[in-house]
Amino acid sequence: MAYFYSEPSRTFNEYLLLPGYTGEDCVPDRVSLVAPLVKYRRGQEECPFSLNIPMVSAIMQSVSNDTMAVALAKEGGLSFIYGSQSVEDEADMVRRVKNHKAGFVVSASNLTPDATLADVLALKARNGFSTVAVTEDASPNGKLLGIVTSRDYRVTRMSPDVPVRDFMTPRDKLITAPAETSLKEANDIIWDHKLNTLPIVDQDDHLLYFVFRKDYAEHKEHPLSLQDEQKRYMVGAGINSRDYERRVPALVEAGADVLCIDSSEGHSVWQKKTIDFIRERYGDRVKVGAGNVVDREGFLFLAEAGADFVKVGIGGGSICITRETKGIGRGQATALIEVAKARDEYFEKTGVYVPVCSDGGIVQDHHITLALAMGADFVMLGRYFARFDESPTPKLMINGQYVKEYWGEGSNRARNWQRYDLGGKDNLAFEEGVDSYVTYAGSLQDNVAKTLYKVKSTMCNCGVTSIPALQKEARLTVVSSTSIVEGGYHDVTLRATMGKE
Fold first, then answer.
1. pTM assigned to the model
2. Residue 263: left (phi > 0), alpha (psi -120 to 50), or beta?
């Protein structure tokens, strides 16, 4: 007979944290959100790879590209570049992040001198950058012929078909710096010459990077930026259980700091084969996460297979319809609680601490704190990051509101059949994700800062100043449907709605 769980599976909304004693040291500025990303022998060694904030971006086409990776690394988190693209394209994205030295920006907007003002405006509308490199072949590293900034043209006084060569600042009027220039030297040149942009070129005058005046202050604002030993931003990359023999070597060569198997269900022979390949070829040098699972058995299977971290969650994502189409999954809170308990038991038995990532089901900022209290070391977010300027999708105006596109990896748009691989046919038999919009929210930096301040404030209310302390000391209670209603505003009329139909 089938096994039936006696308790229902629950979501984050069905729990509340109880406050604890708040001492004088419990202030948000003293809260540490450092979290381990990969397995280690806790108590005997330092984790070889920790996050400075417990947030990573989802392995999704509409969320995690190189632009998102750089922006999130600046804040102390990590992006996993989406794997539902060619091996070469994913490796190129990883390479661009690793080449984006702090302060040195690979040009993302490039045209030839034959392009027009209309092309400049279209490029600016598409990616938001006002500095355009003019190179021989319109590539980021082509021979530099000039640059265009918003100071070089007046839309109201110029024809849209005027060629770029007629209004760009030509190469002979540009101040540049050689490849070996340090960031301090570049900033000195910018200040001495009152520049907004300094091109860095090689000995053949090919463009390498831009250094921007505005970034000088920005670097001071990112004390938690996640960088490797060479001061390069750190980045993850998604892989699948089909073409890993080609994809993994390419991503490792490109400089990916950690990999993650992107799959809707991780308790499978295919994930073990993928991990086995990585261990046989690279040993423990290449870090790889696995998942997703929702119970003790799934966690133990992946931990014993050699996963460096394990993702928890099936069917809880805002664009995921796996539970509707297949009737499989589990409430995210219940799944996370059980897996975290298995993680702790595995640590007591082996001395190896395998971090747990909560993936899906987070709608409100306080759900992040709940997930951490329930045992997650960090959370993976899709919808949250899809709303920001730095996500790959365009900002659109729909029904008078700015939105960004957001679609599931199991949708026909993504066509990421590898994520749902069961060892059979090579295409999607049915959709497990939807194509949607999310409300545009602005910059990543501003929103992440606000979210994390809420997390830190809640932790202070609980009387703790670190994630391990929260996991140990937190007290949680299940709430009734009535108390959920009580938790929001009720029995009042909002002033903003008065007088409106």
1. 0.80
2. beta
Residue in the block written with tokens 């640059």: 147
Does the annotation count 95 as an active-site position?
A: no
Residue 224 buriedness (CB in 10 A; 0-12 / 13-18 / 19+): middle
DSSP 34-97: -EE-S-B-TTTS--SSEESSSEEE-S-TTT-SHHHHHHHHHHT-EEEE--SS-HHHHHHHHHHH
Q: Which of 320, 357, 460, 462 is catalytic?
A: 320
Measured distance CA(203)–CA(457) in Å, rounded: 52
The backbone region for 345, taken as left when phi is positive above 0, alpha when psi lies in -120 to 50, beta otherwise, is alpha
Q: How far is the C-alpha of 471 from the C-alpha of 376, rounded, in Å?
A: 8
- Whether residue 320 lies in the annotated active site: yes
Supply angle C-alpha 275, 330, 387, rounded to 5: 80
CB contact at 8 A, 53 and 224: yes
Q: Which of 96, 232, 419, 460 is catalytic?
A: 419
Print pLDDT tens along the chain (501 aa): 998 988 999 999 999 999 999 999 899 999 999 999 999 999 999 999 999 999 999 999 999 999 999 999 999 999 999 999 999 999 999 999 998 766 778 888 899 999 999 999 988 887 777 899 999 999 999 999 999 988 889 888 889 899 999 999 999 999 999 999 887 888 889 888 888 889 999 999 999 989 887 766 666 678 899 999 887 899 999 999 999 999 999 999 999 999 999 988 899 999 999 999 999 999 999 999 998 999 999 999 999 999 999 999 998 777 776 776 777 889 999 999 999 999 999 999 999 999 999 999 999 999 999 999 999 999 999 999 999 999 999 899 999 999 999 887 766 675 665 655 555 555 555 666 667 889 999 999 999 999 999 999 999 999 999 999 999 999 999 998 878 777 877 778 788 666 555
Q: Which two tokens stand for residue 32?
A: 């540490």
| Ordered domains of the chain (ranges, CATH) | 12-101+225-485 (3.20.20.70), 110-220 (3.10.580.10)
User: Among all chains, which residue has been given the structure tokens 């030839």?
Assistant: 112
Q: In which element (H, E) is residue 439 found? A: strand 435-439
